[in-house]
Amino acid sequence: MKTILILSMTLFVLACSKTTLLSQSTEQPSAVEFIAHEHFTTPSDSDYSFYYDEYRQVFAINAGNPKLRDRFIRATKKLDANFISGEYLLTLNTITEEDGESSYQVFVNDELIATVTNPETHKAFQLVQLQIGKTELKAGDVLTIAANAVTNGKIPEGDGTAYARGRWQSLLLTPVQ
């Protein structure tokens, strides 16, 4: 009788352990925010890269350089092996600028999934959340954010007009339940 009780208890413990392991492997992912200057890389050997605007804590384009205007500049982030695969809602956090409405392209593995544009504003440097939409993501995927420095022609500067710098703060991934 003692042996049967011990064997039963052992089987019960093993069954509970197996259930725990199964529940851990099917765990739901939580939202993750990738900060531009902390998680994304921009080519350091290229003339076409973002700089870190420390005051606003965002990536930005040096619009004072004419060759960086009206073109898309890219930064990338590879999802590491611990990333939990699934469907996510992507939100790009950008900063408004009075001198232009920058556009942003979002790519997954070099496939364009969305292009969004900052709204026109009369109050600069406000956080805006641009909805990218839902997409399937898995470990190893490469996320790319591209932004452009553009002018809306409304802010005089020298012989022309000022340019927005395509400032962006982060990419938020929220799991879809």
TrEMBL record:
Signal peptide annotation: 1-15
Keywords per UniProt: Signal
Protein name per its UniProtKB record: Uncharacterized protein
